[in-house]
Amino acid sequence: MKNNYLNMLYGVIFLGLTGCLHTDINNPDRAISAKLQQKALNSTLAYELVESLTVEVGPRLAGSEQDLIAVEWAENKLNNLGFDKVYKEAVQVPVWHRGEAKASITSPYAQPLVITALGGSISTPKEGIEANIIRFNSLTELQQASSADVHGKIVFIDHVTERHKTGKGYGKSVGGRSKGAIAAAQKGAVAIMIRSIGTDHDRMAHTGMMRYQEGVNKIPAAAMSNPDADLINAMLKRSKNIKIKLQLSAENQGFATSYNVIAEVTGSTKPDEIVLISAHLDSWDEGTGAIDDGAGVAIVTAAGKLIQDLPVKPARTVRVVLYAAEEVGLIGGKTYAKAHQAELSQHYIAAESDFGAGRIYQIDFRASQQGYEELTKLSQPMITNGVVMGNNKASGGPDVSMLPSMGVPVASLRQDGSDYFDYHHTPNDTLDKIEPAALQQNVAAYAQFAYLMAQSNIELRPIVAK
Length: 466
Description:
The chain is of the alpha/beta class. The chain contains 14 helices and 16 strands.
């Protein structure tokens, strides 16, 4: 498999070089792009950054003490790397404490379960909740169920997350996590437990944010590991009356101030126009936040540093944004969009790295149709880094996903997420899951993208409708 990938990559590189070699001599932007790629592929900066973040800060849940330590860490790193400008902007974030989470099957076969509280969940009573479960294949099946069948029970949503390179299986199953408590409570359930939104078979539960709705009773919400969900299914073959005891001590503790941390490479001739590359600084509290999103922080920071160190800065300003509180509701991204509303017309294009550290295989855009066609030509140097041209349907990433509705063009640098949801939101999100060479390839792609966009003369607006 590895040899096939290398042969394919070398073939792409050869074709890319033969296709554009004659133009590089007379095209300084292509030449600089090639140099940025080579420097990125030979640099260990990104790995050093994510190692520093995961070792010296570790888990950094929004609103926690570690969150503010992460902000200080980011400011210090960006200043030490010599960016032209480093600053932070306040973001009000919810404070939620996980507490303890315990669950067990009490009948017909007593066994412990591995669970975790879902982000934002309330606690159970101190003595816990004990009730029979009712199983559903999906959120949709729950929503169609009879209230009489659900009332007084613990809802169990057993939606298996499909494995895909693009991660599209997550989108199919995540509704049970985010909206399940609302649907279950509306039908009289006393609690909800979901199969973890993950593609692994490890006995680790995947956390993640859930939601309540005003006017609907709040019930405790938890996720169980995939093997434990399988265990329950095996029990259901033997008995339809499975009773579970659930104990959560989670607590919502109001609000606190966090920060979006921002660094800039000031443009040489169009300093008021912005090319935005970003990631999110916060993480869940179970692992060390290496792939989600320490990798992204390292990728965009290292890419920005390469551009910062160029002898001549690109025309537009390259702005590196490390967002606060993505995990608890894209709060940093929404706050940024509101705070910078007056200058969004000056944002040339935006992108976010928030899908781990798998190799980037494709770049998609969301621009005008004519602009998209010209961008695919402008971005050809990225082919030599294994990145092919995609479509004009990009979302840009979670924290910039609201920008297209405000007229801002975006790009999605698509990472191979085949194993991303094995580790996502678990204690297994740790540094060893990152391949240094793949991280370097990501930095090369973001450095080339940001530089080419900062030099581009293509008109990208108005962007195509979704």
